[in-house]
Amino acid sequence: MNVPLPLPALSPDESAHSERLVQRIGAAIEAAGGWISFERFMEMALYEPGLGYYSAGATKLGSEGDFVTAPEISPLFSRCLANQCVQVLDAVAGGQVLELGAGSGVMAADVLSELDQQGKAPSRYLILEVSADLRERQRSLLQHRVPHLIERIEWLDSLPEEFRGVLIANEVLDALPVQRFRIRGLQVNQLGVTWQFGRLEWSEVHADAALESAVREIEFNLGEPFADGYTSEINLRLQPWIAGIGASMREGAALFIDYGLPRRQYYAPNRSQGTMLCHFRHRFHDDPLINVGVQDIGSWVDFTAVAESAVAAGMSVAGYTTQAHFLIGTGIEQFLAPKDDEDLAGRLQMARQAMLLTLPGEMGERFKVIGLSKGLELPLRGFGVRDLAASL
């Protein structure tokens, strides 16, 4: 039996920062009449200007942060992604790359480096980043890593009106604010947050019409009702968010990499407490009401919902597979081939990195890749080894 490790204590600065955000959320709860939805809480905890996890200045990624993403583990991930970008860019004349939520900027730097090495660097590399702090970190890293390409990089506040090329987003979908629901007998309840005696507390009310309808639709799709007490998440913002991407894209493909499952697995009876996952200094837990503003909050992705939203937005599902199969399909073996000037230590390190990215017990199966396309009749190579789209 695995016993969770205790969470590290907050530093004085972290405690003060968290308390400021908690007080602001408390004020928002009181202004709303004493209760806000979990979706609103998650939005404030992650994105509240100056205080939210992604809006404040602490290091988020890497060994000094709270979690490590695939691009931080190894450039192999981004180089394979670049190979997929090349295929799309070759098919879309004058295509650009658009990255959503570029984190530290490491993926952008490695993708651009590989594209440049192949002579395929796009005229524009666009980054849509809502955090001013992360923008500056990205700009600094990219100026250092790819100074000769910095003039091609442009930061955006919103999706471009028209876009042709390839959109890439790693661990973005899981950070979209979600609603939480709980079944009470025959009733659907909505989980939210109250402010009691200076503390944030869970509370639930009868779900509003939109949430109840969405939960009932899932039950209909599954062919059976949820059991009493069943608790989970649903992203009601996903469809309009994907619709915005579909409206912006004229021709090209979008690639989303994240941890998640098809709907039948996501809402399986044994997953009765949902998929909420918080990250704090490389420890994982499921309580988003603690360490507010200094920990990441996310939920697993219902990839069936992503596919349905894409079709509703006039896009096609180009493929769905595990991260391992996507990396194999996009040529990870070519980057692992021995080089004349490479020492044994370097080769061993790269082999270890490849295992972290592809092994089932690591990131290989937990993370999935879904491809969406529009105006592009092209079988994407990343889904050529094994396409699991039928499971959606």
TrEMBL record:
The keyword Transferase applies. GO terms for molecular function: methyltransferase activity. The keyword Methyltransferase applies. PANTHER family: PROTEIN ARGININE METHYLTRANSFERASE NDUFAF7, MITOCHONDRIAL (PTHR12049). SUPFAM superfamilies: S-adenosyl-L-methionine-dependent methyltransferases (SSF53335). It comes from Steroidobacter gossypii. GO terms for biological process: methylation. The lineage of its organism: Bacteria, Pseudomonadati, Pseudomonadota, Gammaproteobacteria, Steroidobacterales. It holds the Pfam family Methyltransf_28. This is SAM-dependent methyltransferase. Keywords: Methyltransferase, Transferase.
